[in-house]
Amino acid sequence: MFPMIKQVPIPTAGVMLGLVALGNLLAPYSLALQYACGVSSAFLGILLLFKIIFHPSLIKNDMNGNSVFASVSATFFMSIMQLCTYTVSFFPILSEVVWFAAIAGHVLLMIWFTYRYMIHFELRDVYPTYFIAYVGIVVASVTSPAFQQQAVGEYIFWFGFVAYAAIFALVTVRYVSSHAISESSKPLFCIYTAPMSLSLAGYLACVEEKSLLMILIMEICAQGLFLIVLAKMPKLLSLPFYPSYAAFTFPFVITAIAFRQTLRYLQEINGVVPEVLEYIVIAESLIATAIVLYVFTRYMIFFAKQAAAERAIVKSVFKG
């Protein structure tokens, strides 16, 4: 059905995640935009599913041979968790079953990744994608209210938050080390801004007894990391296209989501927040939207080129 299915890279799941999260970010502004993002995300998910079904050996080789691909694959389960919040009002039981299945899949991946890459890890092979493998499961905390599973979400949040502290130290040591970073891996630095914002969004969504001090500290750290990453974006966007462009998407979206949720919480307990903060949320939302659409477009161009190349090969074979 899709000639280029063999060429669909695992990081496509990262764009899938960015799109479905963007839909949730834009939901207060437009239901149509939310579902457009959801459908686009599902389309990428279908491409990946076809590759898993029809070319499992390629997936297996990528997972076993590259720690970046292996850890990034967790974004597929993260995306499924979020897509389930789109369908829960139409298919409540099925959506909840799939949501739990996605959590279970993420846990199994985490266990396998630990055995395959963490027990005898090499510092040069460590990248911010390791956050995805361990902290990414906090998406379950963010989405848990849709299924009235906040208790499950809270347990997962604390696990992810503790894991974040450990992985943050490991990844930071790797980045200040003398190990070189290839050009194709440079976009992965953007992932740095995601785990704190994701943790904050998970905390606000499912923890019943909230600490205002903890929320403020997390938000300040999240915004600080966001500014560091944003400052590097002009140079990163000047790089040639790589599948690692997927790292540009979800981190910016979840940062805007977490900031908006923080302001809503502050409004609940205080009644008002400075108007300038509302403008910052809008600005971050616009940045996230622009980046996700840009990356999605670049991926579509990449897929079109792959499909055209494969059709050209087939035609040359038949002509010969």
UniProtKB/TrEMBL annotation:
Any single Gene Ontology cellular-component annotation: plasma membrane
UniProt keyword annotations, A-Z: Membrane, Transmembrane, Transmembrane helix
One Pfam family it belongs to: SLAC1
Domain of life, per lineage: Bacteria
Gene3D superfamilies from the UniProt entry: Voltage-dependent anion channel
GO MF, one annotated term: monoatomic cation efflux transmembrane transporter activity
Broad class of where this protein is predominantly found: membrane
InterPro entries: SLAC1/Mae1/Ssu1/TehA (IPR004695), Tellurite_res_ion_channel (IPR052951), Voltage-dep_anion_channel_sf (IPR038665)
PANTHER family in the cross-refs: DEP DOMAIN-CONTAINING PROTEIN, TELLURITE RESISTANCE PROTEIN TEHA
Name under which the protein is recorded: C4-dicarboxylate ABC transporter
Lineage: Bacteria, Bacillati, Bacillota, Negativicutes, Veillonellales
